[in-house]
## 1
Amino acid sequence: MVQVFAVLLACQLAGEVVARMSGVPVPGPVIGLMLLFAVMAWRQRISAVLPAASGDGTLEATAHGLLRHLSLLFVPAGVGVIQRLDVLGRDGVALVVALVVSSVLGLVVSALVFRALARRSAGGPA
Amino acid sequence: MTRDPFALWVYLAERPLLWLTVTLVAYGLADRLSQAARRHPLANPVLIAAAMIGAVLLGLGVPYDRYFDGAQFVHFLLGPATVALAVPLYENRHAVRRALVPMAAALVAGSVVTLVSAVLILMAFGVSPAVMASMAPKSVTAAIAMAVSEGMGGDPALTAVLVILTGIFGAMVGLPLLGALGLGEARAAGFAVGIAAHGIGTARALQFSPEAGAFAAIAMALNAVLTALLAPPLFRWLMVQG
């Protein structure tokens, strides 16, 4: 558990370093996600340096435990809405309409395009 | 020793312990409510918990910064949790590899449609360009959205608020809406929710199924990158046209 947290934080740290040094517009944790993916793909070969990721299931169990309460982690940012109640009051109707309509369009278009091309490439719904 | 309740309140209100505890207790209550409502989409735990805490802070006149001193310990875990999304992604890597073409096309189409429609609607309402710039990148994770918004002349704090509201909305309506339209297949729906509603949508998709969660996670990551690259030129172009 402690080792897994060290691996997660090390990946995030390395991701932040890569993001800052290279100037690519990708958040550090997202680069960290890619690094952890690479670690998992290569873990048989690098298990000597990464005991926690060597395949005893601790990494999976800890990650799933953390992700089970992913919603909790957005609560502090969500409370931040109280700081902008003035703008939400002034442009509220426009913001709500734009947010709702654009989100619904984005959801439907993404899913439609995905399904159309998944059918074509697989010859039918998987 | 403090016998004066007001002095005790002043002491506690300035310490991280109180607001960290309040955050966890409020989430615990919100999660119980959501379970009692059989995970009904309207009973979103982020929305319920944030509304309860926001009401307490406004009622007691506690500034958000004071609250965040305590809540930052929870907020901090977003970084390692984002890294941990590699695990469901890895476990579903074969399904993801088979869907590379549909993912790429859905990413570009969904991302552009979301951004352009949001800006056009705000234009029709006649809001200021700063508010439009704050809204444009709202569908991606807050760190990227705030940087993009600032670069286009927006208000990063307003963007952070819109990002959260978009995530909550997408998490609430995404899967039920797509299901009602016959688009509820786990990969397509998960990917769409990741594009439209970033991490909050991904959290909801993970509850639905690990496969939907994996596709939401990759959509969220890809849309963050695409929006960072595409939003500034697209927004400039829309401003010139408008």
## 2
Amino acid sequence: MNTTKKRVILVEADLNAQLQFKAQFAKSEVEVTAFTSGMGAIQYIKQNGIPELLVLEEAAKPLGAVQTLNYLKDQIGFSAPVIVVANHIHSGLDKLRVQKIITRPYRNADIQFIKELLMLDAIIKNPSSQAYNLDYLMELADGDDTFIQESLKIFLTSVPAQVHALVESFEENRLEAVCQYAHAIKPSYEMLQSKRAANLCDTIAHYAQPQELPSLVKALKKEHETIEYALLQDFPELLNGKKCNN
Amino acid sequence: MRKRILIVEDNQQVAEAIVLSLEQAGYTTCVCADGTTAIEQLKSNTFHLVIIDLLLPFTSGMNVIKWSKTEFPTLPIIVLSSIIEENIVTHTFLMGAFDYISKPFKPSDLLQSINKALQQKN
């Protein structure tokens, strides 16, 4: 087995749907192991360890998604991200605390979500090489350089305080506030095309399990510091507009 | 007469970007950062269109849309949000939103949507 590959376990009774899912990752660094029943996946996980992601059919045989997940959590302390595949979205799915619920046929947006989810580990471990990119701001500015300067000033005066508040909320276990701050600052990172920071915000705000928050919050703080440092290196004149948070 | 557009957005950087795009296109803008202030603005001023985020402090964007559609049924509302869940997007349309644009927005998409909304209103 190639250990550098991300391991995904798919529980899907429909063989065509299995093939469709596998095809999406055929040329990627993702190894999809598919099972037609939850029992097969349970045995495999017991023998080979916890994968990076479990994609589980809601009506998985013989236990169904809820019981399969409960079994995995109770018996082997399963903690990896889980995506449930349902025939249609219904209120009964609310009780499943999973990363995302998707429906068949798999949409490009869902596959993209999974790819980004699997990249998360790399996001946490590798701070960005290019902290930001001004292409989007330049497109918005349409030749108005003052706008770019103004936008960066706003970033440096508003976002650090919100990151600080996010970290503080996390330390005080106010998880709802953590999610709200993450959601609120995500567009600022998108404007600087800092995909890693934006992805971290998105995951913290909408998908993270409580046990994943410590590493995600730490990674976001580090990523933000990298961006802020890079901006101030490239635009020292912005220092005048930056408020001191200390 | 320049059309007046109310922008309800709590991210200051995004709000500034919307203002720039709209003012370059000849619109007059007013920005507020939360739902409660947005409702106050709508009560006391005339606007031709509203651009609104969904997750806002104090009163959510959904509540502002609901209130606006009761008080000003013909006022076009464009939702600009980073939430892309299908059921939420559908819900905003059911509540009467004219369009739903996801962040990060392209100025051309936003302006096209505004033009369509204002044309339809006229």
